[in-house]
Each structure stands twice: as structure tokens, then as C-alpha cells.
Amino acid sequence: MKPSRVPAVIWMSGLLAALLVFPLVQRSQYYQHVMVMTMMAAVLASSWNIIGGYAGYTSLGHAAFFGLGGYLVALAHNHFGWHPFISTWFLGIVVMGVALILGWISLRTHGSAFVVVTIAMVFIFRIVALNLASITNGARGLTQPRPGWGGVPWSPELIKIPFHYIMLALLCLTVFASWRVRQSKFGLGLIAIREDEGKAEAVGIDTMLYKVLAFGLSAYFVGVAGGIYSYFFTYIDPQFIFDIFTGVTMVLIAILGGRGTLWGPVLGAFIMEPLGNWVIGVFGGTQIHLAVFGGILLAVMLFMPQGILPALTEFVKRRAKAPAAGRRSQSA
Amino acid sequence: MLLVENITKAFGGIRAVDSCSMGVERGSITGLIGPNGSGKTTLFNLITGFYQPDVGRIHFNDKPIHGLPPSRICHQGIGRTFQITRLFWKMTVLENMIVPVRQVGWRTLFSRGVKKHEEARALELLNLVGLTGYQDEEARKLSFGQQKLLEFAAVLMADPDLILLDEPAGGVNPVMIEKIIGLVEDLNRQGKTFLVVEHNMRLVMELCQHIVVLDHGQKIAEGKPATIQNDLLVLEAYLGSTNHADASA
To answer: Which residues in B63-86 are b (16+ Cβ under 10 Å) and which e?
Structure first.
């Protein structure tokens, strides 16, 4: 870990710089759109990774928090005129509060029972959104005014750019939070829970507290992303935003890139999201992109069961070791 | 120091622990023996909060601990090992040592995972059990005996007053058994109290100052090793018959 610290700073600054200049260099609205969605996928997968990767609790229900964030932001915008770019950060805290309560209930279950409970959460949220029509407008969904600032809409040519930067900010925050968790006593405890929850409890880890906090934290960034998303599309409806597939996608991306690693979910998102969009571009609005997604996941599971990033790290380590050993034998 | 009062735990129709009372004196090494299935491990699990008793009370340092979750009981100062060694297999030896470090308050939760002074203490304890140089290995790569030692050393990281050892010598070679005996005696001299479940009678008789014998979930005898060795009930529980004893009586 230590010798790679300097290169890590270099490639991270490089990545950040590339993402900062991207919308200035790449003027295509289509690519700008794909980049926003890619960064969002990275946010969702990284955030999910805190409970799903570090603590090992596979939640398929994070779409519930994504949708809740979207609805709260849309409602606050329409009723109180709160600008989504500001309100989403605070309303994310409300989403986190809801997640803390739901986590406190659902994290009593383990393994597949937990997965089923989290799936149920998405359906409960969807049913509520559909039937609470006086607030949510039911199946017709919610529309927001065209994105802009201070009553002036952004010009259609530049409209993706503010979203690019706010999503980039959210991505940085999410990865930073994930890194802080990973480095801390909290993160160490979460990994201990993943390895052997009973043992963790026996050595003094308050497993319930750790799990609930991780669940709440991982819901925060997902909720904030949902808020930005609802403004990005200016339209949400229950079927669309409380979608099991949203929850499944972030899980698959995290697993693909490397579950439980810091950068794996980001890597997974930067592979899968552009690829998915490309396949849709080539084959049109078919279901082929799902088949491609499934095929890639299958291949990764077969050949690098830990995910892409851990497999790559292992490969690089081995390569680095081999020439070093060679050099030593030469000098001897 | 530890007081178990009239405790009962049933699984279905079987009373694994049945109206059992016992105590552990501060500064002692107390042995808990009995045939297989006599309720020793169940009693351990009751003391450490893994099971909740159906009836009865458990006090530690005059405070009730029954009903508390295992992590809280650990914070009160009771550490334990498991009959079948349990470690965080894919974490390093050092991380296995650091996880049990006791944390207080919210601030420490988000503080650095492995701190310098914790690492120093962990290395010291690893040295004590003879695992120097293994700190960066994954726990699963250690040998069986080393894993037992690591589990023991990790328990010490939380600095418990009372340590519950569940078959510390199970499946361990004689040299390692001597080492474990030495460690427990040293720590006992430094003030740690032990409650030991063990089948190796030589170890129990050598190590323990006080012995409690369980059979079918009930305490059938208690006393000094010499007394226990000659107790008829104990012989019956282990050997299954008193005919011979009756005949000679």
C-alpha cells in the first residue's frame, strides 16, 4: 500500500482534472449526458458499497432511498421553491433519517432474508407514492420547472454542464466518505461484521449500531443523487424511480468493479454505464443491453470472482514481483 | 466476581442448563468440566450474552449482566474464546488484534482504524504468544495452533478482567499446551481471572484452583482439584456406572 501512495495521488488528480475539463472539451450533449449518468452510477455503487461491500449486507432496496430523495427534492422545489442543487444536500439527511429507522428494523435479518426485506422496501415506497396522490400526484408523476437559477432557465446547449459539476462534487464527497469510513475504526468494525458478525459482537463491536449507521450513511448519497436526478430529468413517476432495476444495477456495478474496495464501484460504473449506453445506441431501445450486462457480469464472476479491481491489483502485484525477483537474481 | 444464580436455558424440551448456580472468585483460575453435552458451552454462551437465560440471574462485579448483548458484556470486562476458533479470516493478524480494542464515544468511531499505540500494544501481545512477524499475514494462513493463540491474544487487547476459555487445549499439540498453561498462569499472576472449559484433565488439574462439574445441565460437584478427582458423582458422570464403587463400599 505505502509505495503506491504517490502514484495514487497522481492518478487521482489526473482523473479529477479529466472530469473537471470534460464538459468544456466534449461539447456533445449526448456524451455529456452519459457522463452525468456514469458519475451518478459511480455515486450509487460507491454509496451502496458502504453497507453492501464493507459490511456485506446485500441491500437491493436502495432504489427506495433514490426515489425518496427524488420525490422530496421535487416536492420542495414545486411547493416551497427550494432549488434542488441546494435542497438535495439537506433533504438527503431526511432520507438518511428514514434509512436509519428502516435499517434498525431490517438489519435484524441476515443473508437472503435481508435481501428480500430490502426488495419489499422498494415496493412499499412505490405503492405509497402511487396512492398518496394528493401529495405525489400518483401515477402521473411530478414535473419540475426547466432547470435554471434565479428564475432564469439555463440555455438548452449548456444545460448538462451544471449537472456535470454537481454530480462530480457528489462523487468526490461519496468517495471521500467511503475512504474515511474504510480508514476508521467504524470501517474496521464493518469488515469484521462481514467476516464474522457473532465474533465481532463477542469482541465488543456494537454490531447493530454499526450496521444501522452504515445503512443510513449509504442511503444519504443515494438520496442526494436521487434528488439531482429528479431535477436532471425534471420528471419522475413512481414506476420509474422506485425501480428494482435501479437497486440491482448499483449492486451489480459494485460487484463487477470490486465489492468492498474503495475504487471498485467507481471503476465498475465507468465501464458499465458508457458501455450500456453504447449498446443502446447501436441496437436501439431493445433489451440487448441487459443481455450484454448479464454476459459481462457472468464472465467477471467466472474469471475474477472478486471483481475487476482486485483482479487487476493482484495481476499488477504479481507482475511487479516477477521482475524484482529477476533483478535480484541478476545482481547476486 | 462472577455470580451465576439458578440459571436455566432450554432448547425445545432439553434443558441444556438446568437451575445451575456457580461463581468465579476474583483472581482465580476456575475450571468448568463435565461430559460432552453437559452444558458447559451453553453456560459460556449465557454468561457472554449469546443466549438469554429462561430463568435466573448473572452478576458480574455486582452488576446484573443477563439480558445485555454480547458487545456490552465484553465492555464490562469479560472476554472469551470459542470452542472452534473464530477469527476474521480474511483480515490480517494485526487487524484481528485491533478490532477488539475498546472504543468509547462517537469521536473514536471515525478516528483512525489502527493507531500507533494500539499497534505497539498488539505487537507486544503477539510477541507474548509467539506470533512475532505474522502481523501482516491473513489470519486464515496461520496454523491451527497459531490461530488459537491469535484468538487468545486478541481477547487480551480489550483488557478484560475475566477471560472465558472454551477448550484452549482442544486439538493442540503437547508443546503448545504447555505454552498455553504458562501464559494463563502468568496472566493470572498479573491479576486476570479465568474460567476454563477443558477436557484435558491433566491441564485442568494442574491449572485450576477451583473446579465446577456439570452433568446434564446441573452442577453435580464443586471444589479443589483433589476433592473432585475422588468425587463419586463425578466418576459416575464420566464413567457411567457406580457398580464398582458400590461393590467396594
So the answer is: eebbebbbbebbbbbbbbbbeebb
